[in-house]
Amino acid sequence: MEATEPIRVGGAGEEPMNGQWSLLNRVVRTRAGQLALLALGSTMVGLFFSLSMAADYGWKRSMLQSLAQFWGWAILLPLIVFVDRRMPFTWKQLGRRAVAHFFAGLAITAIYIYVFFTFRVLDGERRWDLLKPTTAFHEGWGWYIWSMLVYWAIVGSAQAVRYYQQNLSSELQLERMERSLAEARLNALRMQLDPHFLFNALNTISSHVERNPKLTRRMIEHLGDLLRMSLECKDRQEVPLSEEIAFLEHYLEIQRIRFGSHLQVRLDIDPAVRFASVPSLVLQPLVENAIRHGISRRGGGGTVTVVARGEGDRLFIRVLDDGVGLPDGWTLETSEGLGLSVTRQRIAGLYPNGGSSFAVRPRIEGGTAAEMELPLRVTGEEVVEHAAD
User: Fold this and answer.
1) Which of 2, 54, 132, 353 is such that its CA lies 20 to 30 A from the CA of 284?
2) In angstroms, how far is CA 164 from the centroid of its own chain?
3) What are the pLDDT digits (tens) for 89-119?
4) With contact defined as beta carbons under 8 Å apart, do 141 and 67 qualify?
5) Which long-range contacts (CB under 8 A, 24 or more apart) does 58-62 make?
6) Cα separations (Å) of 227 from 197, 201, 284?
7) For residue range 23-35, what is the model confidence (pLDDT) as tens digits?
């Protein structure tokens, strides 16, 4: 006896990576995390730039001066971002915004020079009289132009981040809108099938009301089960294949009552794909089409066969009949049948970018074959195992 390998979805190793990104996102979103990252980043940048001055000033002096510079900008960074976001002018008013930032930069740069000098005093490199206004003005003049350039670089970087966030937000919003539009379109297609199926089923039942009331009651019971199952899955675009087969069985019971021995049905479903996801209400239109346009037009009746197999990561489903076949010149694209056209559009919408295929073709041995290829995805926690001798 051999057991098949369980079918699983997803790869190993994804959860730890997702956990790391989740932890990083939580850190970035907290105020303490943002301050810690700002302190760490400014320290790393300061140490990096101190390497370029170590040969001229010595390692300790160059490191203290470089750290004082970048720690000073780290302290003022929240203020710069605050001022930038509170500007009364949008970036469409670039000239006015630049003038406003020029005057804001003069004030913030003056504050920065005092912060920088304070660090230099605290690290023991300069004396306290450096913080006197006259001394600070005289000493700081040489730093002013360079510091203004750094201020504008920070403003430009902040705006670049803002543009990136806005662009990312716009893309996410557009993606949500596209997804909502696709879902609405799929729901509209799905809703077309319910009245179409109900109308045809009622026509079938009405033809037996006077002829055989007892059989009619059985048909109505199965129709009630069909409607209940249809309502249960109305908000789901995909269902397990087992549910779709159960729905199909009730529909076939109505057709067996109608056609009697003239209709034979074979279900050849691989147990390994019983819980594979398929579009809801996908088999019934195909089987109905095979019966109405193939079997019912053949005097001796015929057989409809439903086959489902999995190969690798693909699911193959075929609905076969040995009826009268397709008329000359028939194509799926020009077909006026609602069931086939809606099924084709739903499959293409649910699995875009070449992730599926759907075709209807004549069989060499006679009749018609409706074939679809879908991604093989198992729903729920069910793991299907079967044995063969």
Assistant:
1) 353
2) 21
3) 776 777 888 888 888 888 888 888 778 778 7
4) no
5) 61/125
6) 10, 11, 13
7) 666 666 677 776 7
